[in-house]
Amino acid sequence: MNCRMTSLWGKKLIAISATLALLFLGSFIFAKDIPKPPSPFRLVIDNVGLLDQGQQAQLERKLRLFDDSTSTQIVVYLDQSLEGEEIFDYSQRLAESWGIGQKDKNNGVLVYMAVQDKKLYIQVGYGLEGTIPDAATKQIISNYIVPAFKRGEYYAGLDKATDIIISLAKN
Prior knowledge:
By secondary structure, this protein is α/β, with parallel strands linked by helices. Helix content is 53%, strand content 13%. It has helices at 3-29, 53-70, 87-98, 134-150, 154-170, and strands at residues 44-46, 73-79, 108-114, 119-124. The longest helix is centred in the N-terminal third of the chain and has 27 residues, at 3-29. The chain is globular, with a radius of gyration of 20 Å. The termini are far apart.
């Protein structure tokens, strides 16, 4: 191979690398901002008004009791929109940024919903993946949350989903 061909391949490789770097950086530049955690910290955040105050308080009590008795933390976060970001990426960044669960155990669970986008994801910390696998979270969403939400029973869907998550996390 002559020097001229090597130089051409080198320039193409540099161009491709630069393009990939810009795309990668661009995904962070345009990524949806992670809000600061509420102070005092809450386990139920409803930014869209799907739950009334009593429902929020009841769900908060249940999740707080579970957190206090096991150190496994479950957070329910109801949001307006993902603003174009992928739900897995955003929910993972949110859970990591807020430090959901204990850092040394990585035992947090985030139930995240973007109402406007009609997207829902249950983000499970690595420390719980053995007891709450992806298949289980998909079943919780499709068998309990989605049917209840279609009926307008938001609290019932989240209450049942968190009951199942608690049951799985205890094992």
